[in-house]
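[09:14] KT: can someone run the structure on this one? pasting the chain below
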Amino acid sequence: QCPGIEPLCLDLADWDATEAAVGAAGPFELLVNNAAVAVLQPFLEVTQTALRRSLDVNFGAVLHVSQIVARQMIAQGVPGAIVNVSSQASQRALRDHAVYCSTKSALDMLSKVMAMELGPHKIRVNTVNPTVVMTDMGRINWSDPQKSAAMINRIPLGKFAEVDDVVNSILFLLSDKSAMTTGSSLMVDGGFLVS
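[09:31] RB: done, structure tokens below
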């Protein structure tokens, strides 16, 4: 849909491969970190494999890719914007989401530290924090009508988010229309956190 965009397919947990691929892909002015996994397990059943994979993708990959891109932005002396896709789960405990909620909370704080340290270089960093989004992952984890009904009943707007709801929020945070916004979390949750 977007001519000129060249996807890179790689395992973000592999830091060497990521460094080589992303480092060669610049220059950058904008970055959206959207890779995530949601391995749902009750707290007492969380496995080391699920924990490591979630930390590698939901937190470590964002940190590493952002380092690579921000270093390039600074070296070029250009202002930039980074948007990290977090979740309402960073702010509210959800059953069977111990690892997911924790990695998204860590991502929110990482984004604030990035905003503080990269701000002097004219690089803004924000998060969007959506509710359940009707992506393939969202459909897999929320296809059970009983589970989804309980969540939807807590959302004042009465529905899950569509991809465009999140994309439009990201576009705002990447644009000059949010030129004085950094270190912020934009909730795209239909009011979930106020209910």
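[09:33] KT: thanks! The first helix runs from residue 15 to 23.
[09:34] RB: yep, looked fine to me
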